Amino acid sequence: GTDYVEIPGGQPYDPLNGKIEVVEVFGYVCPACNRFQPLLRAWKQTLPADVRMTYVPAAFGPEWEPWARAYYVSEQQGLVERTHDTIYQEIHATNALPGEGDKPDEQAIANFYARYGANPTEFLAAMHSFATDAKLNRGKQFMMRSGVEGTPTLIVNGKYRIKGQSYEDILRIANQLIAQERAARG
Fold this sequence. Notes:
The chain is of the alpha+beta class.
């Protein structure tokens, strides 16, 4: 109850061949996610081969939803690894992209991804495609099932929503839950 909450009937978001899944529910416009990102990036590099990091973008409101849609399109186009950290920098450090409190600007988002090879017209269209709507709804359902109330939130194997007292504490608890899941598998 202090370190984590057990999710009744919890299931991984995107199970993969017995790997232990760690989901980060995040929002690009979220200042706390921006502060957590450097720690999470470094921690992700230390994960063993039997653990997979998965991102689920939160769509808490009109400033968040275009970024959640853009995440799913960038994922489909293979751009996440090259753009994930830069988006945080351009929203929170340089204010080059719209963030929390700003009017959403889907064209600015598409233009950002164009710098990484995406066709901005096609990117915008994909943000409002049936496939993106389905992914957005699936992410929202996962968040509701998991009891996510804010970001960043880490969820291990769909079973445990980490609370923690600090970002470092969250990662410490994640490591313990990963070890617990590995031991349970035998």
